[in-house]
Predict the structure.
Amino acid sequence: MHVIVLGIDPGVANTGYGVVAHQRGRVVALDGGVIETRAGTDAGLRLAHIHQRVCELIDEYNPEAVAVEDLYFGSNARSAFAVGQARGVVILAAGQRAIRCSSYTPQQVKTAVTGSGRAGKEQVQRMVQTLLSLPELPTPDHAADALAVAICHANGASLQAAMERVTA
């Protein structure tokens, strides 16, 4: 089974993305980076830029799935609202291309990658580096988080496909 997953760590200023391929039990990185938008720019333009770049990534890599990190509300509701908008345009881009979009909580992603839902950013970066056999730590942390989301989904893709075959 060969599965390509686009992982997204949503944000208005910085949306991390990571593209991985899962083939024969091994996950490899195809791409990773950050979609940046400028503070002070109209919110609609910022969201349009994120949407456009995600569409470009989908068109370039033709993923079977898009995996998006769920919102972490913390104490800043205004920030969470903005992240939700960025998350929405990512889901829209996937929906426009009829690509399945799955969501994972930060704890699910950390557990899938490190074994602990309370892992810190550096621990996630190190495990992403190890799991993908990268020569250096993936940076910035938004890109590392997006790769972690993609790994989380890719490692569950085989199980999900088997479950779908059984229930069909």
